[in-house]
Write a sequence for this structure.
């Protein structure tokens, strides 16, 4: 992290580093995009249960002290989530709407305040032919979303992790209940 970063951004980064997520969510810091905003932090995460990766994603916190008109603020959360779905869901016309609802519900469940939310949902249906015809069809869901966080940025990371777990098929934890670490 550059020493010349504004204190507001450094405070937000410190808050994000202090967040404790469900034990199934493995997080690591990765290189942040350089051209979108003057300051950025990027985190990559995988939802792993019994050595099986259920979902993967990235959470990027952007900061521009001058603000950007389309952000309606100085911070912007930019996220990506990807997971395999059951193949029969590949043709369901409501999958995109459901994924958008999962995002909104994740933000609402963490009671975060935000503005200017947007989302793109993509379904990737793969079918194999010829020598690969024995492979069953597969479907991946990708959610690309962004919003302008207001208030505590740490709760926005928690909300995003809820989305990641939901897309990966994990049931939500009731409010106030912490997940116990899994034994290996």
């Amino acid at each position: 992290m550059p020493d010349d970063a504004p204190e507001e951004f450094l405070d937000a980064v410190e808050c994000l580093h202090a967040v404790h997520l469900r034990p199934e969510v493995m997080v690591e810091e990765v290189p942040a995009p350089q051209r979108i905003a003057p300051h950025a932090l990027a985190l990559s995460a995988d939802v792993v249960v019994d050595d099986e990766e259920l979902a993967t994603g990235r959470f990027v916190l952007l900061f521009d002290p001058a603000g950007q008109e389309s952000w309606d603020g100085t911070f912007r959360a930019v996220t990506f989530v990807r997971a395999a779905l059951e193949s029969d869901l590949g043709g369901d016309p409501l999958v995109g709407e459901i994924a958008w609802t999962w995002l909104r519900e994740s933000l609402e469940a963490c009671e975060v305040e935000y503005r200017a939310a947007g989302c793109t949902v993509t379904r990737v249906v793969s079918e194999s032919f010829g020598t690969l015809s024995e492979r069953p069809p597969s479907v991946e869901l990708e959610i690309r979303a962004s919003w302008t966080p207001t208030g505590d940025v740490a709760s926005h990371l928690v909300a995003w992790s809820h989305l990641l777990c939901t897309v990966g098929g994990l049931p939500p934890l009731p409010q106030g209940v912490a997940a116990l670490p899994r034994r290996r």
